[in-house]
Amino acid sequence: PICPAHRGVDYELTKNLTVCLKVIPKPPNSISSPLQVLEMLQAFSYCSKRCRLVSLDVEAMFPSTPTGPAIHLIRNLLKESQDALSDVTSLKPDSVADLLDLSIRNCHAVVEDDGKQRWFRQTKGLAMRKSYSPLVADIFMGMWEKDLQELASACGSTVIHFCRYADDYLILFEGTDEALHTWVEKLNTKDVNIKVTLEVEQAGQLPFLDISITRTEHNFKTKVYRKACATNQVAPFTSYTEPRNLTSAIESDTVRAFRYCTTSRDRQKELQFITKKYEQQGYPSTTIHTTL
Questions:
Q1: 60 conformational bin, left if phi > 0, alpha if psi -120 to 50, beta if neither
Q2: pLDDT tens digits for 159-184?
Q3: 0.85 exceeded by the pTM?
Q4: CA separation, residue 258 to residues 48, 121, 210, 222, 264 (Å)
């Protein structure tokens, strides 16, 4: 369910709960930017020859998050962060946890059906439009993934390192195919609510977020990745858009090209792609090249 948070009766409560939950430290393997993926690959480039690139996707993370265990965990973590919590609210940790429980259990949505209003209450998981949902899910997944490396060792394999962006895992895995699939099966039995799907590198390549990663014997190479369904559409130059926003779009694409492309050849190809994309939408060549 996607609840319209701006119309919810607990809108103000949701905002305040979000502020309270932000005092809890992020799980150690949770990242908030693709740039942290590049840092991880650089730090572990020495193991590129012996590992494999693997990604895991958590199926429907928000509606699958078990709210009871999540709130219990958050209650304990808020008590550990009580000093930081006191800086943002006068409420005690138990009160914040109780209000969070109240908000989650009373999440409603209304649908217009043939001129009548049909009301629904979400009975499982988190609503996608609640501002605290990403925080609650992230905190719970931080607990779920704590023994991820130990389970791999029990299967005769090694998880050299991993990171998670929301519901997507990037893993440097060392082991056989049999050990890999046994490990994923074990992960899917850890919690009845949480299920993950597996994707393994093909010919040493694996896409993760908007980065295409190539594993070589000596390091990891990266470049910009676009899904097959990407339209690559941008606002036409003749549209009613502020000029600074038009040039900002070119700047954003260019910055991403320089950040993600580790070889000059891939970077040059990406800049050529950017130039062609904006020329097709009527952008003057002088504007494009000046911005680049």
A1: left
A2: 999 999 999 999 999 999 999 999 99
A3: yes
A4: 22, 47, 14, 11, 9
